[in-house]
Design brief:
about 325 residues; alpha/beta; Rossmann fold; 3 domains; eight-stranded mixed β-sheet; 10 helices; about 30% helix
Protein backbone atom coordinates (compact mmCIF):
# COMPACT_ATOMS: atom_id res chain seq x y z
CA UNK A 1 0.00 0.00 0.00
CA UNK A 2 2.91 2.33 0.60
CA UNK A 3 3.58 4.99 3.19
CA UNK A 4 2.37 7.85 0.96
CA UNK A 5 -1.28 6.85 1.25
CA UNK A 6 -3.22 8.26 4.18
CA UNK A 7 -5.64 6.07 6.10
CA UNK A 8 -9.21 7.28 5.65
CA UNK A 9 -11.27 4.70 7.52
CA UNK A 10 -10.39 2.34 10.35
CA UNK A 11 -12.98 -0.12 11.67
CA UNK A 12 -11.98 -2.05 14.77
CA UNK A 13 -13.90 -4.97 16.32
CA UNK A 14 -17.29 -3.80 15.07
CA UNK A 15 -20.22 -5.97 16.12
CA UNK A 16 -23.87 -5.28 15.29
CA UNK A 17 -26.88 -7.08 16.72
CA UNK A 18 -30.59 -6.34 16.74
CA UNK A 19 -32.95 -6.55 19.70
CA UNK A 20 -36.15 -8.38 18.81
CA UNK A 21 -39.11 -9.55 20.86
CA UNK A 22 -40.53 -12.95 20.02
CA UNK A 23 -43.61 -14.65 21.44
CA UNK A 24 -44.64 -11.61 23.43
CA UNK A 25 -42.01 -10.20 25.77
CA UNK A 26 -39.21 -12.68 25.18
CA UNK A 27 -36.22 -10.57 24.20
CA UNK A 28 -33.78 -11.97 21.62
CA UNK A 29 -30.57 -10.37 20.38
CA UNK A 30 -29.73 -11.44 16.85
CA UNK A 31 -26.08 -10.82 15.92
CA UNK A 32 -25.43 -10.02 12.25
CA UNK A 33 -21.85 -8.68 12.23
CA UNK A 34 -19.20 -9.93 14.65
CA UNK A 35 -15.77 -8.48 15.44
CA UNK A 36 -15.33 -6.83 12.03
CA UNK A 37 -11.98 -5.13 11.47
CA UNK A 38 -10.97 -3.41 8.23
CA UNK A 39 -9.24 -0.25 7.00
CA UNK A 40 -9.27 1.82 3.80
CA UNK A 41 -6.66 4.26 2.53
CA UNK A 42 -7.00 7.10 0.06
CA UNK A 43 -6.54 5.98 -3.55
CA UNK A 44 -7.54 2.45 -2.57
CA UNK A 45 -10.51 0.18 -3.26
CA UNK A 46 -11.30 -2.42 -0.62
CA UNK A 47 -14.04 -4.95 -1.39
CA UNK A 48 -16.17 -6.71 1.21
CA UNK A 49 -17.11 -9.96 -0.53
CA UNK A 50 -19.85 -12.15 0.90
CA UNK A 51 -23.06 -13.93 0.01
CA UNK A 52 -26.31 -12.05 -0.55
CA UNK A 53 -28.23 -11.24 2.61
CA UNK A 54 -25.24 -11.85 4.88
CA UNK A 55 -25.30 -8.39 6.45
CA UNK A 56 -22.47 -6.72 4.51
CA UNK A 57 -24.53 -3.58 3.87
CA UNK A 58 -24.89 -3.05 7.61
CA UNK A 59 -21.25 -2.01 7.68
CA UNK A 60 -22.14 0.83 5.28
CA UNK A 61 -25.17 1.77 7.34
CA UNK A 62 -23.06 1.83 10.50
CA UNK A 63 -20.41 4.09 8.92
CA UNK A 64 -23.14 6.45 7.70
CA UNK A 65 -25.06 6.36 10.99
CA UNK A 66 -28.32 5.10 9.50
CA UNK A 67 -28.86 1.88 11.45
CA UNK A 68 -32.39 1.27 12.81
CA UNK A 69 -33.27 2.12 16.41
CA UNK A 70 -33.06 -1.48 17.64
CA UNK A 71 -29.43 -1.93 16.56
CA UNK A 72 -26.82 -2.61 19.22
CA UNK A 73 -23.32 -1.59 18.16
CA UNK A 74 -19.95 -2.20 19.80
CA UNK A 75 -16.46 -1.50 18.49
CA UNK A 76 -14.90 1.65 17.11
CA UNK A 77 -14.89 3.41 13.73
CA UNK A 78 -12.40 6.18 12.96
CA UNK A 79 -12.33 8.54 9.99
CA UNK A 80 -9.02 10.31 9.33
CA UNK A 81 -7.96 9.37 12.84
CA UNK A 82 -11.05 10.84 14.51
CA UNK A 83 -13.62 8.65 16.28
CA UNK A 84 -16.73 8.55 14.10
CA UNK A 85 -19.53 9.12 16.60
CA UNK A 86 -23.14 9.75 15.57
CA UNK A 87 -22.75 13.55 15.49
CA UNK A 88 -19.71 13.33 13.21
CA UNK A 89 -21.43 10.73 11.00
CA UNK A 90 -24.34 13.09 10.46
CA UNK A 91 -21.98 16.00 9.80
CA UNK A 92 -19.90 14.11 7.19
CA UNK A 93 -22.67 12.02 5.61
CA UNK A 94 -23.36 13.17 2.07
CA UNK A 95 -20.29 15.42 2.15
CA UNK A 96 -16.93 13.77 2.97
CA UNK A 97 -18.46 10.28 3.15
CA UNK A 98 -20.99 9.35 0.48
CA UNK A 99 -23.02 6.29 -0.42
CA UNK A 100 -23.40 5.04 -3.97
CA UNK A 101 -26.63 3.09 -3.42
CA UNK A 102 -27.52 -0.09 -5.26
CA UNK A 103 -30.99 0.83 -6.47
CA UNK A 104 -32.46 3.52 -8.69
CA UNK A 105 -35.25 3.61 -6.10
CA UNK A 106 -32.99 5.94 -4.10
CA UNK A 107 -33.79 8.60 -6.71
CA UNK A 108 -36.93 10.70 -6.38
CA UNK A 109 -39.22 9.58 -9.24
CA UNK A 110 -40.82 13.04 -9.44
CA UNK A 111 -37.62 15.09 -9.78
CA UNK A 112 -35.28 15.57 -12.73
CA UNK A 113 -31.94 13.85 -12.09
CA UNK A 114 -29.83 17.02 -12.42
CA UNK A 115 -31.83 18.78 -9.70
CA UNK A 116 -31.49 15.73 -7.44
CA UNK A 117 -27.74 15.75 -7.94
CA UNK A 118 -27.51 19.45 -7.10
CA UNK A 119 -29.66 19.08 -3.98
CA UNK A 120 -30.87 21.87 -1.72
CA UNK A 121 -29.19 25.25 -2.13
CA UNK A 122 -29.22 28.37 0.05
CA UNK A 123 -29.57 30.73 -2.88
CA UNK A 124 -29.45 31.02 -6.66
CA UNK A 125 -25.68 31.67 -6.67
CA UNK A 126 -25.00 28.37 -4.87
CA UNK A 127 -27.36 26.58 -7.25
CA UNK A 128 -25.53 27.95 -10.28
CA UNK A 129 -22.15 26.94 -8.84
CA UNK A 130 -23.37 23.42 -8.08
CA UNK A 131 -24.92 23.20 -11.56
CA UNK A 132 -21.48 23.73 -13.10
CA UNK A 133 -19.99 20.97 -10.94
CA UNK A 134 -22.93 18.65 -11.67
CA UNK A 135 -22.54 19.09 -15.43
CA UNK A 136 -18.77 18.49 -15.27
CA UNK A 137 -19.22 15.26 -13.29
CA UNK A 138 -22.10 14.03 -15.44
CA UNK A 139 -19.96 14.67 -18.54
CA UNK A 140 -17.04 12.78 -16.98
CA UNK A 141 -19.23 9.69 -16.83
CA UNK A 142 -20.67 10.03 -20.30
CA UNK A 143 -23.98 11.68 -19.36
CA UNK A 144 -24.66 14.47 -21.84
CA UNK A 145 -26.87 17.50 -21.26
CA UNK A 146 -29.99 15.69 -22.47
CA UNK A 147 -29.79 13.48 -19.37
CA UNK A 148 -30.15 16.47 -17.03
CA UNK A 149 -33.85 16.86 -17.83
CA UNK A 150 -34.74 13.17 -17.56
CA UNK A 151 -36.68 11.58 -14.73
CA UNK A 152 -35.40 8.35 -13.16
CA UNK A 153 -37.90 6.12 -14.98
CA UNK A 154 -36.46 7.36 -18.30
CA UNK A 155 -32.94 6.10 -17.49
CA UNK A 156 -31.48 2.78 -18.59
CA UNK A 157 -29.92 0.60 -15.89
CA UNK A 158 -26.40 1.72 -16.80
CA UNK A 159 -27.38 5.39 -16.95
CA UNK A 160 -29.08 5.14 -13.56
CA UNK A 161 -25.88 3.75 -11.99
CA UNK A 162 -23.88 6.61 -13.49
CA UNK A 163 -26.39 9.15 -12.15
CA UNK A 164 -26.17 7.60 -8.67
CA UNK A 165 -22.36 7.69 -8.83
CA UNK A 166 -22.28 11.25 -10.17
CA UNK A 167 -24.72 12.45 -7.53
CA UNK A 168 -22.50 11.01 -4.79
CA UNK A 169 -19.51 12.92 -6.19
CA UNK A 170 -21.08 16.40 -6.29
CA UNK A 171 -19.77 17.27 -2.81
CA UNK A 172 -16.25 15.96 -3.63
CA UNK A 173 -16.18 13.28 -0.87
CA UNK A 174 -12.96 11.53 0.14
CA UNK A 175 -14.62 8.19 0.99
CA UNK A 176 -17.28 6.49 -1.12
CA UNK A 177 -19.26 3.39 -0.23
CA UNK A 178 -20.47 1.46 -3.28
CA UNK A 179 -23.21 -0.88 -2.06
CA UNK A 180 -23.82 -3.73 -4.55
CA UNK A 181 -23.38 -1.51 -7.62
CA UNK A 182 -23.70 -4.17 -10.35
CA UNK A 183 -26.62 -6.63 -9.81
CA UNK A 184 -29.14 -6.62 -12.65
CA UNK A 185 -26.84 -4.88 -15.12
CA UNK A 186 -25.91 -6.28 -18.51
CA UNK A 187 -22.26 -7.23 -19.11
CA UNK A 188 -21.38 -3.93 -20.80
CA UNK A 189 -22.86 -1.86 -17.97
CA UNK A 190 -21.02 -3.99 -15.39
CA UNK A 191 -17.70 -3.31 -17.11
CA UNK A 192 -18.51 0.40 -17.28
CA UNK A 193 -19.39 0.45 -13.58
CA UNK A 194 -16.12 -1.28 -12.71
CA UNK A 195 -14.16 1.29 -14.72
CA UNK A 196 -16.12 4.14 -13.11
CA UNK A 197 -15.26 2.89 -9.61
CA UNK A 198 -11.59 2.37 -10.54
CA UNK A 199 -11.59 5.93 -11.87
CA UNK A 200 -12.46 7.15 -8.36
CA UNK A 201 -9.20 5.69 -7.07
CA UNK A 202 -7.28 7.60 -9.75
CA UNK A 203 -8.82 10.78 -8.32
CA UNK A 204 -7.50 9.98 -4.84
CA UNK A 205 -10.75 8.62 -3.39
CA UNK A 206 -11.01 5.70 -1.02
CA UNK A 207 -13.75 3.23 -1.93
CA UNK A 208 -15.48 0.55 0.11
CA UNK A 209 -17.02 -1.84 -2.41
CA UNK A 210 -19.71 -4.13 -1.00
CA UNK A 211 -20.52 -7.00 -3.34
CA UNK A 212 -21.45 -10.68 -3.62
CA UNK A 213 -19.98 -10.95 -7.12
CA UNK A 214 -16.43 -12.30 -6.91
CA UNK A 215 -15.47 -11.28 -10.46
CA UNK A 216 -16.48 -7.69 -9.75
CA UNK A 217 -14.28 -7.69 -6.63
CA UNK A 218 -11.37 -9.26 -8.52
CA UNK A 219 -11.56 -6.74 -11.36
CA UNK A 220 -12.07 -3.69 -9.17
CA UNK A 221 -10.41 -3.94 -5.75
CA UNK A 222 -6.87 -3.59 -4.45
CA UNK A 223 -7.69 -5.73 -1.40
CA UNK A 224 -10.56 -8.10 -0.73
CA UNK A 225 -12.09 -8.89 2.65
CA UNK A 226 -13.96 -12.21 2.75
CA UNK A 227 -17.16 -12.00 4.78
CA UNK A 228 -18.49 -15.28 6.16
CA UNK A 229 -21.40 -15.72 8.60
CA UNK A 230 -20.96 -12.21 9.98
CA UNK A 231 -17.16 -12.40 10.29
CA UNK A 232 -14.32 -11.12 8.15
CA UNK A 233 -12.21 -14.26 7.87
CA UNK A 234 -9.49 -13.04 5.50
CA UNK A 235 -8.19 -9.79 4.01
CA UNK A 236 -5.68 -10.18 1.22
CA UNK A 237 -4.27 -8.39 -1.81
CA UNK A 238 -6.28 -9.01 -4.97
CA UNK A 239 -3.28 -10.54 -6.78
CA UNK A 240 -3.33 -13.45 -4.33
CA UNK A 241 -6.90 -14.33 -5.28
CA UNK A 242 -5.85 -15.43 -8.74
CA UNK A 243 -4.65 -18.76 -7.32
CA UNK A 244 -6.16 -20.73 -4.43
CA UNK A 245 -2.64 -21.60 -3.23
CA UNK A 246 -1.90 -17.94 -2.53
CA UNK A 247 -4.81 -17.25 -0.17
CA UNK A 248 -4.88 -18.40 3.43
CA UNK A 249 -8.31 -19.40 4.72
CA UNK A 250 -9.77 -22.79 3.70
CA UNK A 251 -13.07 -21.11 2.82
CA UNK A 252 -11.31 -18.60 0.56
CA UNK A 253 -9.48 -21.45 -1.16
CA UNK A 254 -12.78 -23.30 -1.66
CA UNK A 255 -14.38 -20.12 -3.02
CA UNK A 256 -11.68 -19.66 -5.65
CA UNK A 257 -11.73 -23.35 -6.60
CA UNK A 258 -15.51 -23.15 -7.12
CA UNK A 259 -15.14 -20.66 -9.98
CA UNK A 260 -15.96 -22.10 -13.44
CA UNK A 261 -12.47 -21.30 -14.73
CA UNK A 262 -11.00 -23.39 -11.89
CA UNK A 263 -13.08 -26.48 -12.50
CA UNK A 264 -16.25 -25.51 -10.60
CA UNK A 265 -15.22 -27.61 -7.56
CA UNK A 266 -18.05 -27.19 -5.09
CA UNK A 267 -17.90 -27.70 -1.32
CA UNK A 268 -21.02 -28.94 0.45
CA UNK A 269 -22.44 -27.06 3.41
CA UNK A 270 -24.07 -23.73 4.27
CA UNK A 271 -23.12 -20.77 6.41
CA UNK A 272 -24.51 -21.04 9.96
CA UNK A 273 -27.37 -18.63 10.64
CA UNK A 274 -26.97 -18.73 14.42
CA UNK A 275 -23.95 -17.99 16.57
CA UNK A 276 -21.69 -21.03 17.07
CA UNK A 277 -19.21 -21.56 19.92
CA UNK A 278 -16.16 -21.99 17.68
CA UNK A 279 -15.05 -21.03 14.20
CA UNK A 280 -18.04 -20.20 11.95
CA UNK A 281 -16.55 -22.37 9.17
CA UNK A 282 -16.04 -25.39 11.47
CA UNK A 283 -18.79 -27.65 10.09
CA UNK A 284 -17.59 -27.28 6.49
CA UNK A 285 -13.83 -27.15 7.03
CA UNK A 286 -11.53 -29.94 5.82
CA UNK A 287 -8.68 -29.00 8.17
CA UNK A 288 -10.64 -28.45 11.38
CA UNK A 289 -9.41 -29.61 14.75
CA UNK A 290 -11.15 -30.07 18.08
CA UNK A 291 -10.03 -26.61 19.12
CA UNK A 292 -11.84 -25.06 16.16
CA UNK A 293 -15.20 -26.28 17.42
CA UNK A 294 -14.74 -24.76 20.88
CA UNK A 295 -12.81 -21.54 20.37
CA UNK A 296 -13.15 -18.63 17.95
CA UNK A 297 -9.95 -17.59 16.17
CA UNK A 298 -9.06 -13.90 16.15
CA UNK A 299 -8.34 -11.94 13.00
CA UNK A 300 -4.56 -11.70 12.99
CA UNK A 301 -1.92 -10.33 10.64
CA UNK A 302 0.20 -12.74 8.64
CA UNK A 303 2.62 -11.88 5.84
CA UNK A 304 0.80 -8.67 4.84
CA UNK A 305 -2.65 -10.27 5.05
CA UNK A 306 -5.23 -10.77 7.81
CA UNK A 307 -6.51 -14.25 8.65
CA UNK A 308 -9.00 -15.76 11.12
CA UNK A 309 -7.91 -19.40 11.38
CA UNK A 310 -5.87 -21.62 13.71
CA UNK A 311 -4.69 -24.08 11.06
CA UNK A 312 -3.89 -22.28 7.84
CA UNK A 313 -0.60 -22.96 6.09
CA UNK A 314 1.95 -20.82 7.91
CA UNK A 315 -0.05 -20.60 11.15
CA UNK A 316 2.80 -22.09 13.14
CA UNK A 317 5.63 -20.18 11.45
CA UNK A 318 8.16 -19.18 14.04
CA UNK A 319 6.40 -21.16 16.73
Amino acid sequence: MGDFMKELLEVNNLSISFTQYVQGLNRHDSKVISDLTIDINESEIVAILGSSGSGKSLLAHSILGILPYNANVTGKIKYKGQVLDQDLKEKLRGKEICLIPQSVNFLDPLMKVSEQAIGECKNEKEHDEKKIVQREIFARYGLDESVDDLYPFELSGGMARKVLLSTALIGNPDLLIADEPTPGLDAKSVEETIEDIKNLKEHGKGVLLITHEIDVALKTADRIAIFYSGYVIEINNVENFKNADNVLHPYTKALINSLPRNGFKLTEGVQPLDEVPGCPYYENCAIRTERCGKEKPNLEEYDGAMIRCFNFKGANDGA
